[in-house]
Structure formats: C-alpha cells, structure tokens
Amino acid sequence: MLDIKIEITKNPKVLPGADNPLKFGTIFTDHMFLMNYETGKGWYDPRVIPYQPLNLEPSAMVFHYGQEMFEGLKAYKTGDGRTLLFRPDKNIERANKTNRRICIPEIPEEDFLQAIKAVVKTDEAWVPTKEGTSLYIRPFIIATDPFLGVKPSERYLFIIILSPVGAYYPEGLNPVKIWIEDEYVRAVKGGIGEAKTGANYVASLKSQVKAHDEGYSQVLWLDGVHRKYIEEVGAMNIFFKINGTVITPELNGSILPGVTRDSVLVLCREWGLPTEERKISIDEVYEAAQNGTLEEVWGSGTAAVISPVGQLRWEDNIMQVQDGGIGPISQRLYDTITGIQLGNIEDTHGWIVEVN
Ligand code: COI
Q1: Which CATH code, of 3.30.470.10, 3.10.50.40, 2.130.10.10, 3.40.1110.10, is assigned to 5-165?
Q2: Pairing of β 73-77 and β 134-143
Q3: Does the 176-341 domain belong in CATH 3.40.50.1970?
Q4: Torsion of CA 331, 336, 338, 343, to 10 degrees
Q5: How large is the average pLDDT for residues 342-354?
Q6: Backbone angles phi and psi of 208, in degrees to 5
Q7: Ligand 1 midpoint to CA 303 (Å)
Q8: Which of 29-33, 70-74, 319-323 is the least confident region?
Q9: Which atom of ligand 1 is least distant from the CA of 302?
Q10: Ligand 1 first shell, C-beta below 6 A
Q11: pLDDT score recorded for residue 39
C-alpha cells in the first residue's frame, strides 16, 4: 500500500462549462500523480501535486532513445454521482507487460490502481457528465537518467495526468473513413508492436499525415512481412463482420491487445455471434466488399470506444461498407459498453471498479 502525499493546488482552474466540446486531449485537470524510481531504492515518493511542467535534464534518456510507456483508460460519472473505472486491471496488466518489454521496472498492480484512484478522487469534480464524455486517464513512465549511452535507465518517473474528453474523432459515432497503408509498416512480430510505447505512434505519423491529406481519419496497417494481413488502426483495433461472422486479427505479437477489443469479443460471444480471432487478409476484405458480404466494420479503443467505419481505401480501390451508416452491431456494442461504463447497464462481468 502506497503512502500517497496529497498537495492541493492553491490556484484551481475554472472547470470547463457544459457547452465545452472537450476536444480530445486538450484540457488538463488541476492535479497529477508522480512517483520516482531509482535502482536499489525501488519506486518511492508517491504524491499527488498540482498539475505543472516537469523539470528534467536535457540529457534525460527518454528524450534520446524513447524509453517510455503509456496507458489510456477512463473514469465515468454515473447518474447517482459515483465515479467508475472500466477494467483498470487490464490496463495495469498490460502496462507491466509493456514495462517488461522495454526494460522499465514494473509497478505492483495494487499500487498502480491506488495511484489512479488517488488522483482521480482528487480531481473528481473534473469527471464530466454530459453524454459521450469521460475523464481520460493517461498514466506514463519516462526514463530520466542524464546519460547518452544506450542502456536501460536507472531512474524513472511515473506520472498520471487527467483530461476531460468528448469523442476521439470529430465524427463522433458517425462512421470514419480509413486509409489502408501499403507503403510503410507500423510494427513486426518480435518488435514492440504489442507494447504501448510512443515509438509505435511516431512510426505512424507519416502515413497519418498522408491519410489526412487524402481526407481519411486514420490508417489501417497491414503486416510488415507480407503486407497482406490486417493488423490494427493505431488508435484502435479493428473488426469486420463478414457474412454473419465477426472477425478480428489475432494477437500475433505485433498488434496492441486492446481492452475494448477484449470487451467486444466477450459481448459478441455472449450475443451468440460467431467470432473469429485469426489472420485476415486485405484481399478477403476486398472480396467481401465486392460481393456484398462485408456487413460491418468498426474500430475499438479506449479513446475511440466503438468507431464505425464507413469506407476503406486500399490503393486505388474504395470499399464502401454497406450504405456508410452506423451498423447495428456497432451501435449495440457502443450502447452496451458505454451503458456498463456509466452504470446504466448491469455489470455482469466484474468490469467496473468504483473510485472511493
Ligand atoms: C487509447 O485508446 O487510450 C489510446 O491510447 C489511443 C491513443 C493513441 C489516443
């Protein structure tokens, strides 16, 4: 159990008004959580302090070799005023998996959860209540040793910041257009594709700019070896409903094991929908789009929740997903997942953790 010191800000900000659209990731709350690590000493000095800039050496290793990890989860406000977290254990488990992959010391799971709860509790007034909004929680760890050699750092900073957010995509729940990348790749098996670390996201920027310039919201990645099998969208995992079966790429080591991805699979199986986690090639999707059996496509992610996909572009081929509207399974998943998150639908899976 951590002994977390709490220092309350003397200059609280004005809370965003009810009409603020809470553009994703632009507003930060009054406080943040910090904890240091040093080899031989372990994790120490857990504290909640006013949100402020960090004081780091320009030589801090994170700036040079990118030894950092992050997570993303959300807190929700229920109608009766409780604050809920959705499956934080899965994020914490994945955080330590990322840590092991990139030589960052693990954080005991109960300490990680205690840290999240402490900072969320401190800024509980910032959890927005309007439909479609939540408090995005961004835990991350950075390597702080002032050293230019390449090796794991001896010192780290674990930080949690909070941001009240609306929809991740400006489209909201309206279907997004996705660009299928055939030039660059995001990750390969054996690399760091399944770790939640900034390097995977910087690798995606060039393609994302290209996709945006062409009018597409996001990039869908193909595998790095054959450039044929579908991987993920970067900010979300991807699902295809073809001829009645829900198909998503298997966790092959190069894609992120999404918490929402897992929740979608659990729900679809409960609803009696045939589901498959397997290799799925872009040719299979193209053929399904051609013969009319591509019934629905959606992405899943903490930030994105469920994001229906209305159109996919692969080389010069435009694949229209049905009439480009929100498919019935996408809508049902969105309603069910957000219903559970907001405490409006009974949590029969033990996914909800109350912040108290
Ligand atoms: C999340 O969904 O929480 C993510 O981490 C995606 C992020 C790149 C916005």
Answers
A1: 3.30.470.10
A2: antiparallel
A3: no
A4: 160
A5: 97
A6: -65, -40
A7: 5
A8: 319-323
A9: 2
A10: 72, 235, 301-303
A11: 98
